[in-house]
Write a structure and sequence with these properties.
alpha/beta, two-stranded antiparallel sheet
Length: about 220
């Protein structure tokens, strides 16, 4: 026989346990409903997209070794470095497209990064790139524009895959370089000098011909009418 007081104590404890279980279930259900209500009331935020702005791409044409300006509306970020990478990425996307007048594989992913630095004008440090109609080039003193305060040097870091797969030839390599320089200057006028790296390292040539050890003057590449 269980003593009477133990039976009473057992019943009390059992009732208390049942009551606590009910309270905990109610609290859990209330918290769950509050969480759902909070999720429903939180507005869905669309991902931020850069506004469309007009950009000028200087497209190379192998048929006549020229550069031609094309105006496009592109989502351009406000950061100058990211802006430079965006316009060059679009330029290389057009070169990678079927039927391009200057076919070069790789596309936007061929641009690892673009760095904008203050330009330092030094006699003989800047090298004239070939004109759009030729592939020659000679060392020349930095232009007066480069000595002006605010001029920038763009360092374009290309991928090794882009250089490895670029069509070989002095004319086609030079056109790629000049179109990059001209596109940078058209959209970022303060860019007056351009240097090229491949996977963060200096490389002798792009694909065996066009010199990548020199500093190019962005204003040397001009579109033909």
């Amino acid at each position: 026989m269980i003593p009477r007081y133990q039976a009473v104590l057992f019943v009390i404890l059992l009732g208390a346990s049942a009551a606590m279980g009910v309270v905990l279930w109610q609290l859990r259900d209330r918290a769950h409903r509050r969480l759902l209500a909070g999720e429903e009331s939180t507005p869905t935020q669309a991902p931020e997209v850069a506004p469309l702005e007009q950009a000028t791409l200087m497209l190379a044409n192998n048929a006549d070794d020229s550069l031609e300006a094309r105006e496009l509306d592109l989502p351009l970020p406000p950061n100058p470095d990211a802006r430079a990478r965006a316009v060059l990425g679009k330029l290389l996307d057009l070169y990678a497209a079927r039927g391009a007048a200057h076919p070069v594989p790789g596309g936007a992913s061929s641009i690892e990064q673009v760095y904008l630095l203050p330009a330092t004008a030094r006699d003989g440090a800047a090298t004239n790139g070939a004109g759009a109609g030729g592939a020659g080039g000679s060392t020349a003193p930095a232009s007066a524009e480069n000595t002006q305060s605010g001029s920038q040097l763009a360092v374009v870091n290309l991928t090794d895959a882009f250089a490895a797969n670029h069509p070989s030839g002095l004319e086609t390599e030079t056109l790629t370089i000049l179109s990059i320089c001209a596109t940078l200057h058209a959209n970022l006028p303060r860019v007056t000098e351009v240097r090229f790296l491949v996977d963060g390292e200096q490389r002798a040539t792009l694909a065996g011909h066009a010199d990548l050890t020199r500093t190019y003057l962005a204003t040397d590449a001009e579109a033909k009418p």
